[in-house]
TrEMBL record, chain A:
The keyword Hydrolase does not apply. It comes from Actinacidiphila oryziradicis. PROSITE patterns: ABC_TRANSPORTER_1, ABC_TRANSPORTER_2. It is found in: Cell membrane. It comes from the Bacteria. InterPro entries: AAA+_ATPase, ABC_carbohydrate_import_ATPase, ABC_transporter-like_ATP-bd, ABC_transporter-like_CS, P-loop_NTPase. This is Sugar ABC transporter ATP-binding protein. GO terms for molecular function: ATP binding; ATP hydrolysis activity. GO terms for cellular component: plasma membrane.
From TrEMBL, chains B, D:
One of its GO terms (cellular component) is plasma membrane. It is found in: Cell membrane. The lineage of its organism: Bacteria, Bacillati, Actinomycetota, Actinomycetes, Kitasatosporales. This is ABC transporter permease. Pfam families: BPD_transp_2. One of its GO terms (molecular function) is transmembrane transporter activity.
Length: 513, 343, 328, 343
């Protein structure tokens, strides 16, 4: 063990939480949390999906009010009446769910609530200038300050969200899974910024399910389980097994299930010359029965669009999609679903979930017809099927009658994937399936995907985490700027090669193609 | 318990028992509509108490109750159709005009010559087709529902005036007129029709794939689309259903007034939307209940009845009605716990 | 009588034209070509429809008259827009039935100032400078006539404290207020008062609803006055649905359907008080005379008088035959 | 997971110059509102061409143009207020009644005795206070905007009837009456007021923190709250602004008609909402422009003017108006690219 990094342990704490309690109808989300954060340290919060991390930070940022316990801010007990109070006290927050106003420009979003102004009039030039300054600092000067935020892809929106938190004078910056929508290069960028903040004496609370990030950036770690602190102030290099044990109460053995040796026979999906102008060009590949094909690439390389086009949610400008050798009607989701395709989309809130509806209905949504007779839904069958999926994916809480909107982020993600585990899906299109999913559940999910493949289901997987693509897929496609630049068996390719291919200006490109 | 200050690594006995996620289903948010309906029932009870104390001799008579229910019938059927549209994420401003159009069309002399069957058929077809046109404009023409149905509201009104030449068309088909005059086992026929429509629509919303799709389309259209639901078709069907309800309501209105006129149905859209919303249907879509809308209609109809029983002048009626709406909603929302909590 | 009750409240929209022809004789010789502008509130209501139909029919009788009718919306603002536009077109004379006299007075004055004489039909402007001729029905008199009829009839039936109801039209219109006041005043002269008053919207179904509730509020009634025969269709429907017949009812405005019922004498409707839309035809005829600078042949005066108030007649079984042709 | 190989990843990533710079983060259709307004301007041009061909002698005269603009003024001011409310995520059904209430209140004999200043002051205060009450019910009573403003619509109507005793109150204050009769440099005073309100509101929406907060609250109330904006206060202010606009409009209506009446403002809510929406304001909040609403009002007013110039009977007007609305929206939405592409 090395010395805990960061400021010395006996510096006066910036923030202390004692016995904080918060309940939602039917759930005790926080049940006596203890946390101590010192100035200038990067403090990580670890915990499974639904452990209460987001709830905790929402209490710190004044969104929720605790029902019990004590919060000491710079030694003084505080109770924030609302987000405004927390902001004024010097706590900035990057929330897990995006908190941007789609129709406002990047600059306006960044300075929302504290616009530079003269007597009620916004000083627009200064707004833009300050926004650019923060974006530069984040290494993203290329994001246009005048563009409405709703027109940026998710990753860019995340950066805007960070820029907003940075634009305020904060003593403590809270980041709730900022890396979930970021690719590795963006994460590196983020870490650079965090180090700068740290150097300036600003404390950071960092939440992530990626343990290696914690090792890289954190000074200390606090682990939550079921709303309680199970370990506080662990050093960053605590062995993974120990961390996982604190989080889950058990150890997670193999992250990636073993790949079968048999070469999949039989072709399920064939994509030929698929093109959508401005998104991707001349994409061709196949997926066999029981084969898992992974697509790696940078954010913005057009992978999501490709999946959606294969699925019929977008109409291609050229090319065709064949299932079992039969051409799918372009632009028809109905045809795709009928042929056995299923898509777990990238944005769970906007693209996948009915947040006001119970989990069981969300899970049953795509296969409604299969559990109905003469137009009548067999609700019992639906509940049973949903409960089985919930068991298989370790949904927390397990109750499938809860509204989907009350689940934690990671558990919502499980519902999205779980929808396609029902019924006779033959080709599963997964777009960032593990975004925000905790280590334990992730392993379960990988196993489920592998099991499905073993049953003969084809899987097309898009992920921004290269190791996930390499570890899970049988075959890897690498996309760059809307083109497939490499197709290879996962055994014959390593992370370094993928990253080289993914980046612009790769030397390997000419050699391989 | 966790006082560990300083850099010391404090570990707790690994918490293997999971005390947290104990769910008590009755406090669960899923029961929110039920609570809301209870609130509305409470409002209704208060109104009944007011009725009993201000008009003790007339309010709770069989005649007055069946009067209230009869008054609620036509607007009730329309509100149920509206509920589906709103749950499906839309709005239908044309219900009043469609009712007028169907009423006028089914009472022209030539339609009347086909007898009651012909009239019912005409009303239902006119309503459904016009509703479907709304749906097509919205689903395929990608018009905002508010504007598309506003255009239909204006246009159908004009068409109804054109057909009737702005004259009130008297109905001479006895069986239609008797619809409103007769009752079965003491229950007026119109009320029975309303009950049947309500029951059927409850089943439709809660037990069928159509109902599920409606909720999905209104709750998150993109998610519904990606789950393989034909959002456009569903949209057309929803507006057609609302139009169908207008057709049924038109027959009821015609039976009640023994006449068809382009002046019928005026402002029904506002009444129907208000009843649905006070019944807990969310204007942003994806949420609402048939029972809530039923209660909403009954509340409004009972208020009107109370006013007349108490002989209130219209201006006072209006002021009091505004106050009652505010009061009803605030009562309905009242949750003791929330008093002490911000959001 | 059932056979008579066909189709519409008015079976013959053109009927007023026949009456018009007979009345139009005295000053009938053609004059110089003139344009008569006409505006009335647009409303989907039998009586208002009859107003425009009658005016149009009368204008057709005069070959030298160009009839320019503008309709717009159902409120004073919309009508003002219509009239301002009409004034731009400079007709020789304008006949206007304002939505609300007070609100359109300024517009009437504008027309007069622009040199266009205005015939103010039915609803009175508040400023005499705003019109050349006022021809109106008598709303107060309408209510008073109904009140007198009911009062007299109840008196002679020996009732001492009868229960009397009123079903008004759109309550926020000044004309409704005038009618109700006349009704109240007339009843008071008999020592009676209105015990139940509800307001409808001049439409059939609003009449039905108001009446249905009213009948619940008053388990026993002696008389009802309903302001308007068009909404009366609904009122009568509600009465028959409630199987009530212990009272009698008086209508208002004088539709042909109402008169037929009075003639048949097999319903609760025993009388109606006229408020005839034929005043529109008269207004057009008089406008033509004004535009030609002529007087009415039966009067000594060289020009048309400034103000004409039509009286409201009570139509009962006894005299209904005489009024039937005027029904709308 | 980068476990184990994390080091190399980081090196690689930091070695390469920010690769994101190569990606295009956006697709260029930021000019959507502009395009939409262009579409509406197109619709307006088409209407002008129709006007020129069907009424060549009257349509493009100075008198008729200032007539159209004057007709647009009062409803235009209300529409601008409504635009703010809708952008802020709400809706205001009470504008018609508030106009009536303000008009009636400012024309009572006792108010008139204070002269023009007193009348203007009364109308503005009545409108603003009633609007603020709407806002409080919505922000603090947590009522759905539709229901809260519906209650206000009904209640204010009753109050207006009560105050005026349902009589039309004639105005004898010369300077108020002259507002509608006079013009400055050939432009009617009412049109000038409308222009000033429009310009001021454009600045308010586009150049001030108030405007930005309106968009934020309507676009994403939760995000606005998290950013430290006082959402409730902003909501109250928005409805108060709408009420203020009603007060101004009431003065304009009173000046035009030389009278105040509880019948004024009927159905203004529908006209204002329709004009705002056709002008590109989104009913879900967060999006809309003052210019779009201005164009929307002009389109509707011009349509009405065309009807009158062409002597159409009302029923035909209605049918044609319905068709024009549909046509206008479809034309406005027309994008050649979209014909070939879904989504
Ligand atoms: N608004 C809410 N209403 C009801 N329950 C809620 C609400 N928000 C959170 N919960 C519940 O509280 C618990 C903690 O959720 P929280 O979002 O804090 O988890 P988390 O640790 O952030 O998980 P994840 O890693 O998946 O984001 C969960 O059981 C969740 O279902
Ligand atoms: N909302 C949007 N509006 C305009 N352009 C967009 C939008 N979303 C994505 N794009 C563009 O589409 C292309 C693909 O973007 P996208 O981020 O979906 O790709 P991806 O490979 O799926 O990345 P990710 O890792 O985020 O899934 C990019 O050129 C991007 O600029
Ligand atoms: Mg979370
Ligand atoms: Mg993507």
């Amino acid at each position: 063990m090395t010395e805990p990094r960061g400021p010395s342990a006996d510096a006066a704490p910036l923030l202390t939480l004692r016995g904080v309690v918060k309940t939602f109808p039917g759930v005790r989300a926080l049940d006596g949390v203890e946390l101590t954060v010192r100035p200038g340290e990067v403090h990580c919060l670890l915990g499974q999906n639904g452990a209460g991390k987001s709830t905790l930070i929402k209490i710190l940022s004044g969104v929720h009010r605790p029902e019990g316990g004590e919060i000491l801010w710079q030694g003084q007990p505080v109770s924030f009446a609302g987000p405004q109070a927390a902001i004024r006290a010097g706590i900035g927050t990057i929330y897990q769910e995006l908190d941007l106003v789609a129709d406002m420009t990047v600059a306006e979003n960044i300075l929302l609530g504290h616009e530079p102004r003269t007597g009620g009039f916004v000083r627009r030039g200064e707004t833009r200038a300050r926004a650019r300054e923060v974006l530069e600092r984040l290494g993203h000067g290329e994001i246009p300050a005048d563009r409405p935020v709703g027109r940026l892809p998710a990753a860019a929106q995340q950066i805007v969200s960070m820029a907003r938190a940075l634009s305020r004078e904060a003593k403590l910056l809270i980041m709730d899974e900022p890396s979930a929508v970021l690719a590795h290069d963006e994460v590196a960028n983020l870490f650079r910024v965090i180090r700068e903040l740290k150097a300036a004496g600003i404390a950071v609370i960092y939440i992530s399910h990626r343990l290696e990030e914690i090792r890289e950036i954190c000074d200390r770690v606090t682990v939550l389980k079921d709303g309680r602190t199970t370990a506080a102030d662990l050093p960053a290099d605590t062995p993974t097994g120990r961390l996982v044990d604190r989080m889950t109460g058990r150890s997670v053995e193999h992250v990636f299930p073993p790949r079968p040796d048999v070469v999949p026979e039989g072709e399920l999906l064939r994509v030929e010359g698929l093109t959508r102008h401005g998104e991707f060009t001349d994409v061709s590949f196949t997926v066999g029965t029981g084969e898992i094909v992974g697509i790696a690439g940078l954010v913005g390389s057009g992978r999501s669009e490709l999946l959606e086009t294969v699925y019929g949610a977008r109409r291609p400008d050229a090319g065709q999609v064949l299932v079992d050798g039969r051409r799918l009607r372009p632009g028809s989701i109905a045809a795709a679903v009928k042929a056995g395709l299923g898509l777990a989309p990238e944005e769970r809130k906007s693209q996948a979930l009915l947040l006001g509806e119970p989990v069981q209905r969300n899970i049953g949504l795509a296969t409604l017809d299969r559990r109905s007779a003469a137009g009548f839904v067999r609700a019992g069958a639906e509940r049973e099927a949903a409960a089985a999926v919930a068991d298989r994916l370790e949904l927390r809480p397990r109750d499938v009658r809860r509204r989907a909107g009350t689940l934690s982020g990671g558990n919502q993600q499980k519902v999205v994937v779980g929808r396609w585990l029902l019924g006779s899906t033959r080709l599963l299109l997964l777009d960032e399936p593990t975004r925000g999913v905790d280590v334990g559940a992730r392993a379960e999910l990988y196993q489920v995907i592998r099991d499905l493949a073993a049953e003969g289901v084809g899987v097309l997987l898009v992920s921004s985490e290269v190791p996930e693509v390499l570890g899970l897929a049988d075959r890897v496609l690498v996309m760059r700027e809307g083109r497939i630049v490499q197709q290879r068996s996962a055994r014959d390719i390593n992370e370094h090669t993928v990253l080289d291919l993914v980046m612009a200006g790769s030397l390997l490109e000419g050699a391989d193609q | 318990m966790l006082a560990g200050r300083g850099g010391s690594v404090t570990e707790l006995a690994s918490a293997t028992t999971a005390p947290a996620a104990k769910t008590t289903w009755w406090r669960d948010d899923a029961s929110e509509p039920v609570r809301r309906n209870l609130g509305l029932t409470g409002v209704l009870v208060v109104l009944v108490v007011i009725g009993l104390s201000t008009a003790p001799n007339t309010f709770l008579t069989g005649g007055n109750i069946s009067n209230i229910l009869t008054q609620a019938s036509a607007i009730g059927v329309i509100t149920i159709g509206m509920t589906f549209v709103i749950i499906g994420g839309g709005i239908d401003l044309s219900v009043g005009s469609l009712t007028a159009l169907a009423a006028v069309w089914c009472t022209t002399l030539s339609t009347q010559s086909f007898g009651a069957g012909g009239m019912v058929f005409t009303a239902v077809v006119v309503g459904t087709v016009a509703g479907a046109v709304n749906g097509v404009l919205i689903a395929y023409g990608r018009m905002v529902p508010f504007i598309a149905t506003l255009a239909m509201m204006v246009g159908a009104q004009g068409l109804a005036e054109k057909i009737s030449n702005k004259q009130t068309q008297v109905v001479n088909v006895g069986s239609i007129n008797r619809l409103a005059a007769n009752d079965i086992l003491g229950i007026p026929v119109l009320v029975l029709i309303f009950a049947v429509v309500t029951a059927a629509c409850w089943v439709l919303l809660n037990r069928t794939t159509f109902g599920r799709r409606t909720v999905a389309v209104g709750g998150n259209a993109e998610a519904a689309r990606l789950a393989g639901i034909n959002v456009r078709r569903q949209t057309v069907l929803l507006y057609a259903l609302s139009g169908l309800c207008c057709g049924i309501a038109a027959i009821m209105v015609v039976a009640q007034s023994n006449a068809g006129s382009s002046g019928q149905g005026v402002l029904y859209e506002l009444d129907a939307i208000a009843a649905a919303i006070i019944g807990g249907t969310s204007l942003t879509g994806g949420r609402g209940t048939v029972i809530g809308s039923l209660l909403g209609v009954l509340v409004f109809t009972t208020i009107t009845n109370l006013f007349i029983l108490n002989n209130l002048p219209t201006e006072v009626q209006n002021i009091v009605k505004g106050a009652i709406i505010v009061g009803a909603v605030l009562v309905q929302q009242f949750q003791p716990r929330e008093l002490f909590r911000r959001r | 009588a059932g056979a008579l009750v066909t189709g519409c409240t008015s079976n013959n929209v053109a009927a007023p034209a026949v009456t018009a022809a007979s009345v139009a004789q005295p000053s009938g010789k053609p004059g110089k070509p003139i344009t008569i502008g006409f505006s009335s509130p647009a409303a989907d209501h039998g009586w208002l429809a009859a107003i425009t139909a009658d005016a149009q029919a009368r204008a057709k009788l005069y070959p030298e008259v160009t009839f320019k009718m503008v309709q717009a919306g159902a409120d004073a603002t919309a009508q003002r827009a219509a009239l301002e536009t009409l004034i731009q077109e400079k007709p020789d004379i304008i006949v206007v039935q304002p939505f609300d006299g007070a609100q359109l007075t300024a517009t009437g004055r504008d027309a007069m100032n622009a040199g266009i004489p205005v015939v103010n039909l039915d609803r009175e402007f508040t400023d005499q400078l705003a019109y050349r001729l006022l021809i109106q029905g008598d709303n107060y008199g309408l209510g008073a006539a109904a009140g007198h009829y009911i009062g007299t009839r109840l008196k002679s039936a020996g009732k001492s404290s009868p229960i009397i109801a009123e079903i008004a039209g759109i309550d926020s219109l000044p004309l409704t207020q005038a009618r109700s006041k006349g009704y109240k005043d007339a009843l008071a002269t008999h020592g009676f008062s209105v015990s139940h008053r509800v307001a409808a919207q001049f439409t059939v179904d609003s009449g039905q609803q108001a009446a249905a509730n009213l009948l619940q509020a008053a388990p026993k009634l002696d008389a009802i006055w309903n302001h308007d025969d068009d909404q009366g269709v609904g009122v009568l429907a509600a009465i028959s649905q409630a199987h009530r017949s212990e009272f009698f009812m008086v209508g208002g405005a004088g539709s042909s359907k109402a008169m037929q019922l009075i003639q048949a004498d097999n319903s609760v409707l025993k009388a109606t008080v006229t408020y005839s839309p034929t005043m529109a035809g008269s207004a057009v005829s008089l406008a033509r005379l004004i535009a030609n600078n002529r007087g009415m042949s039966d009067l000594m005066d060289l020009t048309v008088p400034k103000q004409i108030v039509l009286s409201s007649e009570t139509v009962t079984k006894e005299n209904v035959a005489q009024y039937l042709p005027m029904g709308f």
